[in-house]
Write a structure and sequence with these properties.
The structure is a single chain. With about 290 residues, the chain is an all-alpha fold. The protein contains 15 helices and no strands. The chain has helices at about 5-40, 40-45, 60-65, 70-100, 110-120, 125-135, 140-145, 150-165, 165-175, 180-190, 195-210, 210-215, 225-235, 245-250, 255-285. Helix 3 packs across helix 15, helix 4 packs across helix 8 and helix 11 runs antiparallel to helix 15. The longest helix has about 30 residues, at about 5-40. It is globular. The two termini are about 35 Å apart.
């Protein structure tokens, strides 16, 4: 029998609802405000007093963004880096994890010691730069994807996941003459979709948001990423811009801040577009390694 709510219960429910509404508002309003700024003229936004909808509606910010070849090049480079880097990272990390999950692997404990040691100790930025330069990766596209092909954190999670897959699946395929590569591609990967989806989402968002390697290890303007361009705009909004740039922006009624907001919205769209397709496996993937027995 359902208990009738008392006055205290209703007061408590009302208080919780008010708190939840405030939390949702504080979480979503910054995103909505940035979206409103992108559809308002930049010069009008500097006047302030705009909170809920555009006061001087325009597509000028998006037109200025899409006409600038630097922004388009950076957007294409970020997309290419995210697709290639995530694909290679997930594939290579999963392949190494599959090998390390084999209990009969020689020197298995030594490999685990090297992995744990590398996770806890680093040679620092200078040593990292020297290694990249000796490999010829400085100022190349490879500096974006090759160092991240083996993610040690997801490597340990993938090893734990592969250990839970019954060994009989692989043994039956070996008896039929299948190679290890064929077993991995045709049997192991199809039953590991939660793992693949989780790694893809986290590695993809990491590649999409990364900008430090573009700032430290790349001088070619054609290899700059979208997040690096956004950092440039943030710095430009803190210092006076050149006369020509200021005049061009004044004619277009855009400002560094409105372009920065537009770049933020554009950078969010791909993540929002990919997440619904990975959500099916994402929840179960987040539980990997947390439940045993």
């Amino acid at each position: 029998m359902q208990r009738r709510k008392t006055l205290e219960d209703r007061c408590l429910d009302s208080f919780i609802m008010v708190v939840l509404v405030l939390i949702v508002f504080m979480t979503l309003y910054p995103f909505y405000y940035i979206l409103v700024i992108t559809f308002n003229s930049g010069t009008d936004t500097t006047l302030g007093g705009m909170y809920l909808w555009p006061r001087d509606f325009t597509f000028g910010n998006y037109i200025y963004f899409l006409k600038d070849p630097k922004w388009l090049s950076a957007l294409g480079m970020s997309l290419l880096r995210t697709v290639v880097g995530t694909s290679l990272g997930v594939l290579f990390t999963a392949m190494v994890a599959y090998g390390l999950a084999r209990r009969d692997l020689l020197f298995r404990k030594s490999y685990f010691f090297i992995i744990v040691f590398a996770m806890n100790f680093s040679g620092g930025l200078i040593a990292y730069y020297v290694v990249l330069k000796s490999l010829g990766l400085i100022n190349t596209f490879g500096v974006y994807v090759i160092p991240g092909m083996l993610n040690l954190f997801f490597l340990l999670i993938a090893i734990s996941f592969f250990n839970d897959i019954p060994e009989e699946l692989g043994e039956s395929a070996r008896m039929d003459g299948a190679s290890e590569l064929r077993i991995f591609a045709r049997i192991i990967l199809p039953v590991s979709m939660p793992l693949v989806a989780t790694m893809s989402l986290f590695m993809g968002s990491g590649h999409w948001n990364a900008w430090l390697d573009s700032a430290y290890f790349v001088q070619n303007e054609g290899l700059r990423t979208l997040t690096y361009r956004m950092m440039q705009v943030i710095n430009q909004s803190m210092i006076p811009t050149g006369d020509a740039a200021s005049a061009a922006m004044s004619r277009s009624k855009v400002t560094p801040f409105s372009i920065q907001a537009t770049a933020m919205v554009v950078s969010i769209v791909p993540i929002l577009g990919v997440y619904p397709f990975l959500q099916k496996h994402f929840v179960s993937g987040m539980m990997l390694g947390s439940v045993k027995g």
